[in-house]
Design brief:
20% helix, globular, 7-stranded mixed sheet, 5 helices, alpha+beta, binds coenzyme A
Amino acid sequence: MDESTNLFDSAIFQTINIKNLTFKYDTFELTQTGPNGEYGYDLGDQLVLRPLRLGDFDRGFLKILAQLTVVGDDVKREKFESRFRMMKSCPNSYYIVVVEDLKLKKIVGSITLVNEQKFIRHASSRGRIEDVVVDDTYRGKRLGKLITDFMVLLSKHIGCYKLSLECEDKLRPFYSQFGFALENNQNFMCIRFASQPLVKSNM
Ligand SMILES: CC(C)(COP(=O)(O)OP(=O)(O)OC[C@H]1O[C@@H](n2cnc3c(N)ncnc32)[C@H](O)[C@@H]1OP(=O)(O)O)[C@@H](O)C(=O)NCCC(=O)NCCS
């Protein structure tokens, strides 16, 4: 792997019909963005949408995640690369899409789709949207809308039977525009553990 390695194969973008996005965007065109002809989307203004790359550590990927929640000072290059390799080794499971500002070589938006493989529903899979964030100096320009819209389409494309996310009340209108809704008699329940895991991951 080198710094141009994508988390997932960008060839999947060739098979997605972006006419099926919920909203229309001024510029949203399939293009080849990587050094080896990897696919992404030109969003205009030197912004591209593409899979996370190993080299995005140096383009501020963790800094943008830190605008969403705690990342931790311990996540240095080695830990980032180890986690990247682990995710990449799980085929069809981790889709992290970023927006790069090519002028600044900086990641300005990110969203994760986790595709959880199931035995139920005919050995189907369900999607979870996680870690949606747009750099605070780029907010209000429809980038959040665009990346979420795209991930909803990608989740359908890869065959998820359902897609869910967790958000604060104030963001319900934002997500409901794509079709997310509270379901009757369903509760999101959670336990938070303060301590570090006893079983170390392979990082
Ligand atoms: C939420 C977030 C990703 C939206 O990104 P963005 O690029 O600023 O959003 P957009 O420009 O696409 O906004 C789309 C719409 O959502 C609304 N919206 C955006 N952020 C919102 C917020 N925090 N609360 C309420 N509405 C919001 C906008 O008003 C806009 O509405 P409109 O279409 O009627 O004009 C961004 O504010 C962000 O990164 N926030 C911090 C991290 C976070 O909270 N992530 C979500 C975790 S669930």
